[in-house]
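hiii, so i know i said id send this last week but things got crazy w the move. better late than never?? heres the sequnce for the chain we talked about at the cafe, plus the structure i predicted for it. fair warning i was half asleep when i ran it
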Amino acid sequence: MLPRFKRVLLKLSGESLMGDKNFGLDSDVISQYAEDIKSITELGVQVAIVIGGGNIYRGMNEAETGIERAQGDYMGMLATVINGMALQSGLERAGVYTRLQSAIKMEQIAEPYIRRRAIRHLEKGRVVIFGAGTGNPYFTTDTAGSLRAIEIKADVILKGTRVDGIYTADPEKDPAAEKFETITFNDCITKNLKVMDMTAFTLCMENELPIIVFDMDTAGTLLRVITGEKVGTLVTG
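okay and structure toks below
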């Protein structure tokens, strides 16, 4: 099988790592993700990953918690590093070489994010996990994923979700919702389809970086996307 892409940025939500739990990490989900990622590295695909932190901490209403927005965002960034460490362990158990890079310095557990070093790791066949978002408050991990994908010159962003693409409405709430196989950036905006937050989405649109939204929870789907099957929804110019 020949891969459709040479270098990809895989964007995962923190909530996806919970599995059926209400909080934290599910080891079965991490193992499944690790095996799926391993399957595409074996084809020679270079893989970088950005994970959210919502399974551990999600920025909450400042009025309710008393924690100001910037402080809460930094707490969320630390949660993404915890998730990155967990996925790193899962990948290494599966026999995949990895590097964890953090946008916030924490030398004992992660390399600092250095663009050229990240690219070199990818060229050597290592999976690179980017932790701590962009390192700045007020930016989501979607934005971090778009930014890192552009910086490392990824061919595509693969956004793993719980649903198998982009629909006219939430398919979990509206059984009549229709799925798009392909859609343009402009159509996503005019139809108000929230693929990513607007900052992240605009970055992709301006840099002509395609996005594929697919179901990461079904084992083997990632490999099907990489080998060119019509899986999920492709967002392009």
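btw Residues 184 and 236 are 5 Å apart (CA to CA). thought thatd interest u
miss u guys!!
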